[in-house]
Amino acid sequence: MTISTQEGNSSIRVCNGRPVIRPTGIDNKADYSIIVVDDERLARIPIVTALRNDGYEKVYEAESASELERLLEQTDPSLILMDLDLGKSATDGLELMEKIDAEGKVATNYIVISGHAEKKYMLRAFRQRAMDFLEKPVDLDMLKLRVEKALVD
Predict the structure, then answer these.
(1) CB neighbours (10 Å) of residue 67?
(2) Over the stretch 86-117, which tens digit does the pLDDT of each residue have?
(3) Choosing a second label site near 115 at 20 to 30 A (CA), which of 8, 14, 18, 104?
(4) Are 83 and 114 in contact (CB under 8 A)?
(5) Is residue 111 a contact partner of residue 79, using CB atoms and an 8 Å limit?
(6) In the structure, what pLDDT confidence band is assigned to residue 56 with cuts at 50, 70 and 90?
(7) Terminal CA-to-CA distance of the chain, rounded, Å?
(8) In the structure, what pLDDT confidence band is assigned to residue 19 with cuts at 50, 70 and 90?
């Protein structure tokens, strides 16, 4: 038997006689730091704008691995939105995620955004700890929901 109720920004469900509390929203989006990594400025602008308009104040942009590395020295991101293809190969973003994780400088989550939506790229992204995979062009309403879900989970 499942009984559900809403309390503030949490969902309380009873499953098999035990309460399960799950966050359902974010109280203060301004507290979260998000980095958008994409070599295409025209792809970054609507994403950054949508996130800022949604209440996230600490949204940073990087168009390359070197820019991301500089940002990682200055901020501890809650989430990185990573393009797969940063201009060198279709998997630059995955290699960069792997490097960040191997160096252990930050503990963050990833959402991969790519025009390469083939299954092999998706599987590799999820194996590399991506929480989600969005295909370009990105639906901004869907992006905002997925970002919130990634930050809450």
Answers:
(1) 15
(2) 887 656 888 899 998 888 878 889 999 998 88
(3) 104
(4) yes
(5) yes
(6) very high
(7) 24
(8) low
- Let me know if 103 is exposed, middle or buried by CB neighbors in 10 A (0-12, 13-18, 19+): exposed
Q: What is the pLDDT of residue 11?
A: 53
Amino acid at 38: D
At 31-49, the pLDDT tens digits run: 999 999 999 999 999 999 9
Q: β-strands 58-62, 18-23: how paired?
A: unpaired
Token code pair at residue 29: 């989006």
CA distance 5 to 25: 14
Q: What predicted TM-score, i.e. pTM, was given to this entire model?
A: 0.82
What string of DSSP letters covers 31-73? Answer: G-EEEEE-S-HHHHHHHHHHHHHTT--EEEEESSHHHHHHHHH
CA distance 111 to 138: 12
Helix (H) or strand (E) holding 23: strand 18-23
Distance (Å, rounded) from C-alpha 135 to C-alpha 115? Answer: 6
